Amino acid sequence: TRSHPFYGQAHQAGIETEQQRHTVYMTFDLTSPLASDLQVLLARWSGAIAQLMKGLPIGSVEPDGTSAVAQDTGEAYGLSPASLTVTVGLGPGVFDDRFGLAAKRPKHLAPLPDLPSDQLQKALTGGDLSLQACSDDPQVAYHAIRDLTRMARGVAQTRWTVLGFGRASAGKGQTTPRNLMGFKDGTRNIKEQSEFSEFVWVGDDQAWTRGGSYQIVRKIQMNIETWDADPIGDQQDVFGRTKAVGAPLTGKRESDVPDFAAHRGGSAVIPPTSHVALAAHENNGGVKILRRGYNYTDGLNQYGLLDAGLLFLAYVNDPQHFITLQTRLGGSDRLNEYIQHIGSGIFFTPAAPRPGRFIGQELF
Ligand code: HEM
């Protein structure tokens, strides 16, 4: 029954918010060349999201008169918001020549460069706008995206989407969940306020961008059937952590700090090409990112194999931090044998609006 506020917060909900169990992620291409259409869409979306986050329909469910079409599709009518948040992102295309908004471009908002091991599919990449609905009730999350998509008709069309089940990261005070490889994910995530200020929230850019963040999304497919045949010793070396407890290979408890210098029999206990050795801030000039990903499945692939993976979502105040990490991971991570990055996007998520205003209002 929990409801998060939409207006008057320092940041958009759905970033620092305690991570909910399910997500629906959707991207859009703007089809109207008019900035005023984008403006109206952001205003209508903001008003609707405020309603949805309270658990209210966005208009009539059963309108008067038998020939009227309902404004709200109805499948969440009577359900509680279940901690729903909807986070709006603006892609690089919003600031290209089309809309006259180039001068307002957030300083680091540009398409991601090609990265090592990229196997991106065009149909799962890019977008001018993103919406991420997160909720503890999958029907509530789906309803939000469905009705917001409907409102966009004539202005923006859908581009790609991922339905995520099961959070695959942890925030402060949350137990660490597991990703579909069976390992605890989110142990060493950003959790402290000081880390949010330093690595997540934009501070040193135009006034309108302050308190926002950059959302980086990657659809990462896993070869889970190959993974499931891999011996446990190798699986643990791939991540540099134990499977059941999630402890670093140099420790006993999940919370133990990994010791990347520890050696046994002439080789490092945590392999230098393990996922955590490459990703850890100790080995990356201090870089940290907020991870807020979800497990996903698309059912079966064309060969009848399980088709599943991680909807990786990160929030950073400088996309270069993600690029630095993924350049290292994409180059030599032992995990690469079992994953492919097939989808990708980058969006700027502005701060939350004050009451009576809408997300991105300062652009117009
Ligand atoms: C840590 C899984 C992709 C960045 C971890 C951990 C696991 C994991 C199990 C250890 C527990 C933890 O501290 O959270 C995965 C899987 C991925 C994936 C299954 C792909 C399917 C990525 C990507 C990035 C990334 C693409 C960034 C570019 C990190 C970071 C850590 C981490 C920064 C913390 C390392 C540390 O400080 O010890 N990941 N990850 N991961 N991962 Fe990933």
TrEMBL record:
Record-annotated Dyp-type peroxidase C-terminal domain positions: 176-352
InterPro entries to which the protein is assigned, alphabetical: Dimeric_a/b-barrel, Dyp_perox_C, Dyp_perox_N, Dyp_peroxidase, EfeB/EfeN, TAT_signal
Listed EC numbers: 1.11.1.-
Pfam family, one: Dyp_perox_N
Cofactor(s) for this UniProt protein: heme b
Residue stretches making up the Dyp-type peroxidase N-terminal domain: 12-165
Keywords: Heme, Iron, Lyase, Metal-binding, Oxidoreductase, Peroxidase, Signal
Record text on cofactor binding: Binds 1 heme b (iron(II)-protoporphyrin IX) group non-covalently per subunit.
Localisation: Cell envelope
Catalysed reactions listed for this entry: heme b + 2 H(+) = protoporphyrin IX + Fe(2+)
PANTHER family with a match to the protein in the record: DEFERROCHELATASE (PTHR30521:SF4), DEFERROCHELATASE/PEROXIDASE (PTHR30521)
Protein purpose: Involved in the recovery of exogenous heme iron. Extracts iron from heme while preserving the protoporphyrin ring intact.
Entry similarity comment: Belongs to the DyP-type peroxidase family.
Protein name: Deferrochelatase
Organism: Amnibacterium soli
Upper taxonomic lineage: Bacteria, Bacillati, Actinomycetota, Actinomycetes, Micrococcales
